[in-house]
Amino acid sequence: MTSRFLQIIPACFLLLTSAQSFADNLNVAVASNFAHTMKILAEDFESKTTHQLRISSASTGKLYTQINHGAPFDVFLAADEARPDLLIAANKASADQSRVYAKGKLVLVSNIKPEKNCTDILDNTNLKRLAIANPKTAPYGAAARQALKKLQHWDSTKNKLVMGENIAQTLQFVSTGSANAGFIAKSMLMQGTKIESACEWDIPTDMYDPIKQKMVVLSNSSNKPSVQAFWKYMQTDAASTIIKNNGYDVL
Which domain holds residue 125? Predict the structure, then answer.
């Protein structure tokens, strides 16, 4: 009995260690606008695999800087294409494992009741603070700047701008009343955040460059089983449905 039991132990140990090595964790860096959607995707992914996701969210620019300084991320879901492409050019990310996972939309939200249209608030004397994400680090901020220029309101609103570090903070400025209005990601209006807005306006897509959000696998992590599993998962119909249901287009 004892001899047989001792023979079983090594086999069980091998199975256990094999399962533990296969179920490695995945460190995901995700742009702030996509953080809520990423949590839903993570729950679905984890329910279908043995892997666990660790999610870190910030502005795309900030995450890009962290990656360049050696942050131990496995996958980067940016809010643009530029930063992932720079990582690929620097051999820090895989060109073969990069794809646009979502296309974002910009919306103007106002706490000021317009006389006619929501765009009227940009001329409204009650507009004291207009929130946008920092155009230097956040793609949605760059899109907001482009839209304001197309609307010929960039110069007139410069002194009223309140810049969030990322799109999540920009939303917070509007939802708390710290700003009278703001340009935010359309997806963020579908996340349960309560905004007692007087009006909302979907910015025409010809007013800003397409917000193509690219996912890229970082070079040092391409051989991890969890990375390969997540890469395949993000191309499934289930993932695409979750992304669409949260206010994005999927190419």
Answer: 106-202
